[in-house]
Each structure stands twice: as structure tokens, then as C-alpha cells.
Amino acid sequence: MGSNRTGRRRFLERGVAMAGLAVGAVRTASSQESAPETREVNPKGPYAYGERSRFVTSGRTNDYPKGVFQGMFGPRQNAPLQDVAGIITPAPLHFVRSHSTLPDTDPQKYRLLIHGLVDRPLDFSLEDLKRLPSESRIHFLECQGNSSPGHHAHRKSDFATVQDLHGGTSCSEWTGVPLSVLFKETGLKKGGTWLVSEGADAGRYTYTLPIAKALDDVMVVYGQNGEALRPDQGYPVRLLVPGWEGPYSVKWLRQIKVVDQPYMAWDEAIQHSISRPDLGDKSRWYHFEMPVKSLITRPSGGQTLPGRGFYEISGLAWSGAGVVRRVEVSTDGGRTWKDAKIQGPVHRKAHTRFTLPWSWDGSEVVLLSRATDERSEVQPSLDELSKRWGFSTKETWETADHAFHFNATQRWRVMGDRSIHDAMWS
Amino acid sequence: MPCGHKLLLTVMLVAAAGTGLAQSRPYNIGTAASPEEVRAADHVVGPTGKELPTGSGTSKEGAAIFAQRCAGCHGSNGAGGAGGPRLVAASTNGKQGPFTEKSATNYYPHATIAWDYINRAMPANKPGSLSADEVYAVTAFLLFKNGIIQESDSMDAKSLPKVEMPNRNGFVPAVPVWPAPPKPSWY
Asked: For residue A161, which of A295, A292, A270, A277 has the smallest C-alpha distance?
């Protein structure tokens, strides 16, 4: 209140001064005051860091069924995509995947060590990183196993919403230093073709990345959506590997070691390897880019339509390859398609909002979307993906929790009773 | 000819910039890390095992440590249990199917992966609390239980990287490479 009153008085004084000037009598009100005003810096009440309305309750949800032991491992939480407006996911709602503890790092003590096949092993403090040339870019991050087919299976039928089924993706404006800038400081030795990055969590989460990608568009980030990273997003510093599987973007980044080959850390070579029938006895690893995907987020599973009439169908599309060129929407189960409006500007490797006006006549319908990216890759239907990956029945899909990179079109069934359900398999 | 000179100059400048990258620090920001600091931080072990520390352990020694530190989550025989995944495959023939339990140690293409992961991330309630000898021993125990080494085999910095893993060629692409050869994204 005090500071508000002071501000208002200043404004009035300025007005008086201006009025004085206008009539030619130069006399300022402030000249009558002797002592400089003190300012009450910190707002009282909830204004220093704004809170949302008490009526808004949207939040993350757990990404595992009841009874699954999480024990010592970190949280696995999904973003409420059905409630997100535009393309940016607020940091407090950004999905979370962690593999160990949540570090509580003092930014004064933070150091990023870069060593291995470099000319000069260097330590960078947080202040060092902030002094270097920065970039801010909008990119999605997606869990490699997001949209897991196992989630759609009837045995896990409590996964009903777009958040439950696909909430392992989020999109932020990230601010930090391009890794190429840091490598100019350290120098790179010949033969340094990969790097190993390591987190400061108790399990020292470790992941290998090719140097060519690192020099292309990888960033060491400290800012997310205009503020410091949140602890569950890697405070104070994380790696950001645009367009690639989430696990590459190591949180609580503590060190980078430049090496001459993939280091086959358990996290990359074992945990995130992929089994599928079409691969036979083999497993797919080092899969890198996330494929083109789109989802209708509204109307979507678990919601109830208020009644017949007009709705704007709205959703998100993205691709690890670059920009989304086209999104089509079908309101008749895929028999006919209409081009959705894509809201610009469209960012590379970023969530892209699409919309389509629609009028519901009250009958049972199936809504779905499919996206096409800059490489002309078209998001497949479940049938197409089943053929490619060798899954013959719904039952085989149910056992396919490790068939990562699942990007089949998401079908939502709107029932005559106005309820909406996951119709991936029906 | 001026054109030619210009080209030559450009080539020389580019060459100079190329070699200069190794020497010059454009911003001179960051502090030199001491060899001691790098040594202390440098614990990740790659597939060649060249970073493995001194120490050794056998399956027999590992069995006792496993019972004490690991079995609570992974089960007494490593078959999986309260929250910990299966580490010993149900079948020890080394054949991998599409739905294999990939947490079992016989799925790993290199024995060094087990050593590195146990060393830094296990046990999950106290990562980093096992000594190098203990990590060698537990690794030996898991390799023996999976039918890969003999019970009397001692694992150390020399023997561990030489263990022939049954699933060594069970991954595609055989050699991870980027940029990846052109393939549809779903592959």
C-alpha cells in the first residue's frame, strides 16, 4: 500500500509539473521536499511471486498405476495438456521424469566441469555461464516412452485423459549457452566424437551424445519460461537437446566428458533400448529423434461436452525433425480429413497449436488428428504402425511397454451421452 | 587474378580459424580445472574398461554382498522383487526375444555397463557406497548367476572388459552413428 501511494503521489507531482510547464510558470512540487523518499521494495501479500487463482486446480498427475512401487526412484509425473493454453507449458506443470534423488544445489557452489578430449579442462560457475553469449529458444521435451501403448491397454483403463496417455511432453522457452560456445573455450581435441554428460543426482544419471549434435543446437540452459529452472527441471543447469528423446537432456548437469565413442551408460544402452517384434532378437538403441506426433487436447478423454453446437477443436503437434508443416483433423473416425489452422509463428522442434471449428450434432463420433513434418513424414495410424512394427493384435501391444516412440494417431470417441473416451483400439 | 587472390586469402583465413579454434579462447571465461579435480570427477567407465580402478572380486564374495545390500529389492536370487527389477534372466541360454526382461545382466552388450551402473547408482538407497572390490564382486556374482562366467572367475580391470557377453550383437544399429543413415523415423 505504502509504495502504491508513493507511486501515485509521484505521478500526480509529475502531472502538476507538466501542467506548470504548460502555462509557463516553472515550479515543481518536489522542490519543496528535502529528504529523499525511501521505497518499500517488497510487496506485501502474495504479490512478490504471483499465485494462480484459488479456483484453478490443474496439476501434474502420476504416470504409473496405483500400487507400482516407486521407492527410491524419483517422480514420474505428467503435464495436464488438456488445460495448457497456447504452446508453452508452465514450468510448474512441465512433465517430470527423474531417476534418483532431487538435488538441492547452492548456485554459489555450482560448477560445470568440462574435461576429457579437450585442450583445456575448465570449470564454469553459474555466473560464468550467464556472462557468455546466450540464446533463448522454444523447444519441446518428450519422454522417450510417452504415449506408451501399454497405457492404452484395458488392463490399465484408469489411464483415460490426454494427460494420462500423452502427458510426458511439454514445451518451454529455454535460455542458456550453446554448448558450441563452451567448447570454443575448452577447445576440442581430434578424436573427440561423443560426450558423456552426468547429473548431480545421487545416482549420477549419465548419457552419451554425439559431438556433431552437440555443436549443432544443444544448449546448456539455466532459464525456463523467463525464470530460473525449477528444481525438478534441473536447477540450476541442465542440458537441452532439441528434438531428441528426453533422456538426452540431462538435468542438474555437473560434468561433460568428451570421449571417442558412445560410452554405453546403463541409462542409454540398457534402460532406453527398444524391443519390438519387427526387430526379432535385436533391440533398437541410440534412437535419437522423436517422431512427428499430434493430439487433440480439447475435446479429449475424460471431458464431457456441455451440449450440441459449436466447439473449437484444439490440439498440439510437434516433430523432432523440425517444423510441423500440416495438421489434418477428422471428425468422422478418419473417413474424411480437413486441414486444421496452424497458429504461428511455428517453431522448429516445438509444440505447435492447431485448431479447427466444429459443430457437434449430438451423435457418437470419433475425433482424431494427424500431423506432417518438414521431412514429409506423416503421423501413422495404429494399423500402419502395427504393420511396420509387427504387432498383430491388441494383446501384443499390451505387452509392448518397451516399444518406445509410439506416435499413432490418437482417437477420441464422443458418446451420445456427451462423455469422451480413449478409442485407440476401438 | 584478384579473384584468385581473394579466394586464396579466404582459404588461408579459414585454415587459420580452424587451427586457431584449438588455441584461442574467445571469451576467456571459466576456470582451469586441476588434474586432481578432473581425476576425482572422472569415474564413468566406458566399454573398453580403461577407466576401471584397481581391485577385484569373485562371485562367492559377491553373493554375500548381494544378500546384504541388493536382495532386499532384487530378490535373493536376483529374480526381481520388491521394487527392484530382475537381474538374473529366467533362462541362461543368452537368447533374447522381443519381450525379454532387459534388466537382466545377460542382456548387456558389455560387462563394463554393469560395473559402471552398480558403482554410481546402486544400491538405490545409498548410491556410491560400495567399494571398488565390492562392485567387482557383485558384478561377478551377476555374471555367474546369468551363466556367463565361472564361479571361481575373478573380475578386475583386466578380466572384466574381456568377458564375452551373449547379447553383444543384439542391438541395431550395430554401431551407434550420427548423423544416422536416412531411414523413416518409425524405424
From this structure: A295
Asked if B102 is an interface residue toward chain A (Cβ–Cβ < 8 A), one would say yes
Q: Does any CB of chain A come closer than 8 Å to the CB of residue B40?
A: no
Specify which residues A195 forms β-bridges with: A209, A258
Which residues from chain A sit within 8 angstroms of residue B114, using beta carbons? Answer: 266
Q: What is the pLDDT of residues A196-227, one digit of tens each?
A: 999 999 999 999 999 999 999 999 999 999 99
**Which among A100, A259, A275 has the least Cβ separation from residue B121?**
A100
Q: Which of B29, B93, B116, B169 to mutate to test the interface with A (most CBs of A within 10 A)?
A: B29
Contacts of A205 in chain B (CB under 8 A): 121
C-alpha distances in angstroms, A403 versus A64, A399, B46, B93? 17, 9, 26, 24
Q: Which one of B30, B112, B186 has the shortest CB-CB distance to A388? A: B186
A262 vs B176: CB contact, 8 Å cut-off?
Answer: yes
Within a domain: A411: yes
For A124, the closest of B30, B47, B177 (CB atoms) is B30
pLDDT for A268: 94
pTM for the model stands at 0.89
Do residues B138 and B129 make contact, with C-beta atoms less than 8 angstroms apart? Answer: no
Question: Does the pLDDT at position B16 exceed 70?
Answer: no
Partners of A142 in beta bridges? A169, A245
Give the fold, CATH level 3, of B61-162.
Cytochrome Bc1 Complex; Chain D, domain 2 (1.10.760)
Chain B residue with CA closest to A207: the answer is B44
Last residue of a domain, one of A252, A279, A306: A279
Beginning with the edge strand found earlier in the chain, give each strand of the sheet holding A341-342 in spatial order: A293-298, A309-318, A352-360, A341-342
How many folded domains does chain A comprise?
3
By the 8 A CB rule, do B68 and B134 touch? Answer: no
Can you give the residue range of the structural domain that contains A8? 1-51
ipTM: 0.86
The rounded distance, in Å, linking the Cα atoms of B62 and A96 is 35
B178 and A212 in contact (C-beta within 8 Å)?
A: yes
Contact residues, chain A, for B103 at CB < 8 Å = 270
The reply to whether B146 touches chain A by the CB within 8 Å rule is no
A128, A212, A377 ranked by CB distance to B184: nearest: A377
CB atoms within 10 A of CB B98: 22
Percent of chain A with pLDDT over 70: 88
- Alpha carbon A233 to its chain's center: 10
Query: In terms of DSSP bridges, do strands A253-259 and A324-330 run parallel, antiparallel, or are they unpaired?
Result: unpaired
Per-residue pLDDT, averaged over A224-239, amounts to 97
Q: How far apart are CA A225 and CA A350, in angstroms?
A: 14
Higher pLDDT: B155 or B83? It is B155
CB atoms within 10 A of CB B138: 30
